[in-house]
Amino acid sequence: MKAILGTPRVEVVLRWLATAVGTLLLLMGIGFLVMPELLATGILAAEPARAVGINSLRGDFGGLFLGMGLFVLIGTLTRYPTLLLVPIVFLALIVTGRLISVIVDDLPVVTKGALASELLFLAVLGLSLLASSVRHENLAHRAVHAVTPRLRIVVVLGVVVVVIVVGAFQAQRQIGLRLLGAVAGSQLQSNGLDGIPDGLHVGLAGTGAPLPEHRRHGVCTFVLAGKHLFIVDSGPGSTKALELMRLPLGNIEAVLLTHMHSDHIGGLGELMLKAWTRGARQQPLKVLGPDGVDQVVQGFNMAYAIDTDLRIAHHPPTIAAPEGAGAMAETIRSFDADGAATIFEAPGLKVTAFLVDHRPAAPAVGYRFDYKGRSIVISGDTLPSESLRRQAQGADILLHEALQPEMLQIIHDAAVRGGQPNAAQLASDIQTYHTFPEEVARIARDAHVRQVVLHHFLPQVPMRIFHSAFLGDTRKIFRGPITMGVEGMLLSLPPESLDVRLGWFL
Ligand SMILES: [Zn+2]
Ligand SMILES: [Zn+2]
């Protein structure tokens, strides 16, 4: 090995490979300086939170990548190859962080592309460092130590970096327009559901509850059963998430509301409008729900009436067909003795609404979807419910709301201490009509559910560090997987199998 690495040709090849890695790192650093959002979302899948996030991306990531790139290039182009140690240490720490994340964050290895490139970079830099030290050892041995200082190269390199950075800042307008041209066509034409195989799929567009949280939208779930697309609840802000997922809103079979609390209906007006104009619907959006759905739909139709007229006047009927505007309500009433009602049937598919207990919000329902031997149950908002337990029998996935009383108590006490009696009162009031995580686990265990997914978190769960506190003893009660739902998550159930496949939309 030492003999091979010590060969001049091998050393030169490795040095050039290392130089290429350094150049790439340098370009990424420049990229983060010039267009941090694009690189972060495109390469790191990290969406910056407001201007502070963009600032950190420019500063931290720009600095990290530029620094690594510069150290690599100075190391490979001068007589100081030991400088390669600096980026090697950083890359090793980055890889370690990624591996820790794969282990502790319950993530699918979606970052394997990034991980593979970092390992490759690490290998190239490590071998190059090794090769040059072996080579230098040999040269020293022969007392030929005539490596001329290449300070000039470093200076030229520095100037090139400055020129590129300044040039890229100056050319931002052109870069922006070019990029838009490159991505706009594919974005506009693509349909997020293209390529999704036959099966029963559940996607999370909104997993939040009424308490505000930066990264979560109001509660909203889509279910795709074969070709049939349903939206369950339409919480505030969730229509934007559905659009970002590039869901074909024009193809929605029906919107199913669980109850009329604002955190479940706040996005309905926008959903109606976008399904009509962007989805080019020729008939109003069908909205099903328990008593009260009529009033809610009428209200949204009325609130959007002026906008509807304006769009009909402004756009051709291919975009804003008058007969496709707004929504029409259908109240679910025909519950049987068990509190269940079949609301939709098609070959291989059955959708059932069932009464749950969210008093004083009554009636409130949950939904069960059965398609080709697979099943998904969505709880809606409820206390532990007997009818839900019956409906969840043998379900592949139970998507359930959850409230963590211990965490809410902490919020309550903090509100009391902070002199905010209303916030404190709210924190205790909401505890009376939701389900604790351990109770969800008991229901799932008793009903022989295959997998639990939680959403509609009370209180907020903004970071993974809170997951354990939120879940409490659930994992001792229910032995199957319990997943903390997050926007963009897609769970797919192929027909007539036991598989649950996890994918990502955003
Ligand atoms: Zn509610
Ligand atoms: Zn709710």
Quickly list its features:
about 500 residues; alpha/beta; Metallo-beta-lactamase, Chain A; 2 domains; 8-stranded mixed β-sheet; 7-stranded mixed β-sheet; 19 helices; about 50% helix; binds zinc ion
Task: Summarize the SSE layout with pairings.
Blueprint: H1 2-5, H2 8-34, H3 36-44, H4 50-77, H5 85-104, H6 112-141, H7 151-170, H8 172-189, E1 200-206, E2 220-225, E3 228-232, H9 238-244, E4 252-256, H10 262-265, H11 268-277, E5 285-289, H12 293-303, H13 305-314, E6 327-331, E7 340-346, E8 349-356, E9 364-371, E10 374-378, H14 386-391, E11 397-403, H15 405-417, H16 421-429, H17 437-446, E12 451-458, H18 467-471, H19 474-477, E13 482-484, E14 489-493, E15 501-504
Parallel strand pairs: 3-4, 4-5, 5-6, 10-11, 11-12, 12-13
Antiparallel strand pairs: 1-2, 1-14, 2-3, 7-8, 8-9, 9-10, 14-15
Bound molecules: zinc ion (ZN) (2 copies).
The site of one zinc ion (ZN) has 5 residues, from loops.
